[in-house]
Amino acid sequence: MGGLLSVDSGVFEQWRQRSLAAFEIALDGFVPAGAPAGLGEAMRYAVLGGGKRLRPLLVLAACEAVHGHTEAAMRAACAVELIHAYSLVHDDMPCMDDDVLRRGKPTTHVAFGEAVAMLAGDAMQALAFEVLTPETGVEPALQARLCALLARSAGYDGMAGGQAIDLASVGKQLDEATLRDMHRRKTGVLLQASVLMGAACGPADAKATAALSDYGAALGLAFQVVDDILDVTQDSAVLGKTAGKDQDANKPTYVSVLGLEAAGRLADQLRDQAHRALAASGLTDTAWLGLLADMVVERNS
Amino acid sequence: MGGLLSVDSGVFEQWRQRSLAAFEIALDGFVPAGAPAGLGEAMRYAVLGGGKRLRPLLVLAACEAVHGHTEAAMRAACAVELIHAYSLVHDDMPCMDDDVLRRGKPTTHVAFGEAVAMLAGDAMQALAFEVLTPETGVEPALQARLCALLARSAGYDGMAGGQAIDLASVGKQLDEATLRDMHRRKTGVLLQASVLMGAACGPADAKATAALSDYGAALGLAFQVVDDILDVTQDSAVLGKTAGKDQDANKPTYVSVLGLEAAGRLADQLRDQAHRALAASGLTDTAWLGLLADMVVERNS
């Protein structure tokens, strides 16, 4: 981790702000204001409403680590955030988690009705693949690779599958291995795919790609462990979503399975694991990725 | 239409049966039985449960018309049917059309619950793009082209957008132009995309592609006009879904806007338009496409 310490956190913060500003402009341009019958407004409400933008930052940082194709990475960043945002819209609906608050605002179905929210989520998933497949500007082979990575991470073996396990596990005791599998699919796979999509935008060799994959897996799990910790240690105002929700719903979490202290230790171990993977990648410009791993573990919301 | 009459309808039926048999095997292989927590069962229930398979047949017939890449077309056929089937799952849900019968069976949310049905739909959309992006066997540039066509036809400017207009138009009087725009998006665009995806699998020139696009547009509209006619002339047992539903929901249809007789004439005109487009394509092997247009207009369910 020696090299990383030499990066001033102010420099990272500048990179983060600059990247996010460019990302928000790109995303805004992709999400149609004019889609029919309220659909465009609902889509824009759901995805332009802020959020940490961790997945886009991972795409962009991984692309910088491999000196990759900037336009392709920005499209990948928008696509992965569209997938993430659509999943939140659907997860919040009454038939799923039935949540009314997200990022400090009413959830999409509260604001637009259930039917429009469901369609907006559906259209956001399609839009993600539309964003990845422009007429010009990104090589077709890279387009196909990015679609492949995103589709696999969003589907039955990734995010949607994890959500199904999550639903089925309410009120159940899970061991740590099962919990880990659920979270790997539900959250981890898309975070890992963000890293791999960024890496796909440049000439990463097999060793670097494998290392970045390890980094993404460790970071993905760390993210969920910290999420579980924050769910019991922070209040709704800080989180911008309903706190204590998992506990109330009797859902198994890292805190319920391991206890608060051990969960905190696990998060630190996973952060170290992420940093070790970066060190093993053979890549030199991984400072942003390292600091993003720190950000994930040190965040308070 | 002269050339088409020379094709024996028994030969077409043989082609259709052979194509469908190969399609069902391919699709069965793509939809995971083992996806977690009931998700795989729900996906398989929703997409392997029969149906006319018109979209896959259009993909395969268009591919044959351009002497295209068979594996790519079969993947495209499966992908487009996954999109169609997921849209039915979501459309049938209580917050949308609230339907309990589909293809003669309980709808997916009735059989598996709303949460699993929504997730199954979401996972089916992702799976469509996964099917289009295999590691090997289909050229990456063709993969990207197929993803581009499918994403655009499924999203806000296509199917999801049409569904949003449909929802917003319940109880309203629409003129024929608005009704046509709604149906073009809701049903037509995906049917047209099926033809274009098949055509993309081979070396179709600009003239042929434009003609096939016209064919797809005419066929797509004809399909919906006939759907509206069948909704009032057939009963639920024949249709395998709830008949008279649009009328009961006070939805504008071609029958309510034009009357039954004029709607029938429009369907015949659109069929002629489809045939003329094929004649103008410069392609010789369009017999299956022509007979599919006939099938769309002459069907009774």
UniProtKB/TrEMBL annotation, chains A, B:
It comes from the Bacteria. Pfam families: polyprenyl_synt. CDD domains: Trans_IPPS_HT. Its cofactor is Mg(2+). InterPro entries: Isoprenoid_synthase_dom_sf, Polyprenyl_synt, Polyprenyl_synt_CS, Prenyl_diphosphate_synthase. Keywords: Isoprene biosynthesis, Magnesium, Metal-binding, Transferase. The keyword Ribonucleoprotein does not apply. This is Polyprenyl synthetase family protein.
